[in-house]
Amino acid sequence: MKIWMEHPAKTDIEAVIRHYFSLLRAGSIPEAEQLIEHYPVRHVLKSLWSGSVEASTDEDEASGSPVADGWEQDLSWLGELDLADFHWDPADSHPCVEITYRAQKIEVALGFRVKSTDAGWVLAGPATYW
Q1: Which segments within 41-103 are labelled E, that is strand?
Q2: Strand order through the sheet with 96-101
Q3: Where would I find the H helices in the chain?
Q4: Could you report the per-residue pLDDT of 22-54, keeping only the tens digit for each?
Q5: Among positive and negative, which fits the CA dihedral 112, 35, 56, 100?
Q6: Which H/E stretch holds residue 37?
Q7: What pLDDT was estimated at residue 72?
Q8: Residue 69: which pLDDT band, with cuts at 50, 70 and 90?
Q9: What whole-number distance in Å separates Cα of residue 88 and Cα of residue 108?
Q10: 3-state DSSP call for residue 104?
């Protein structure tokens, strides 16, 4: 887990979030979980699936997309997600990032929290926002 000795700069936090997301996209889930103080990854992946692939298949049922729970066995759909805009609270401690699927913003965003621990400052999350 990335630990800072003082409150990290926004650019440092965004770099960790980008690295975390690149690990998710590559299907390197255990490595992504180790990078931050992680909430349950299954919930995060299910929310991303629901807001991206599943939402697009609702529009076109005959698209031949993977079955409802296929997202757990075949994570290739993660490669079609990307980060969009970052948003910050006034205290620079709660970054939120919008997500795109096939270059279109989806309804799910990921929220993180910069928090102080006995060891130093860490990034916790992500929460999923709809």
Answers
A1: 81-87, 96-101
A2: 37-38, 121-129, 104-116, 96-101, 81-87
A3: 10-25, 29-35, 41-51, 53-59
A4: 999 999 999 999 999 988 888 999 999 999 988
A5: positive
A6: strand 37-38
A7: 81
A8: low
A9: 16
A10: strand
3-state secondary structure of 36: coil
Between CA 94 and CA 51 the distance in angstroms is 22
Task: Identify whether the C-beta of residue 113 lies closer than 8 Å to the C-beta of residue 107.
Answer: no
pLDDT in tens, 75-113: 999 999 999 999 999 998 999 999 999 999 999 999 999
Q: How is residue 38 written in tokens?
A: 């992680």
pTM of the shown model: 0.88
Instruction: Determine the Cα angle at 85 with ends 37 and 48, to 5°.
Output: 55
**Residues 6 or more apart in contact with residue 122 via CB below 8 angstroms:** 1, 2, 3, 4, 36, 37, 114, 115
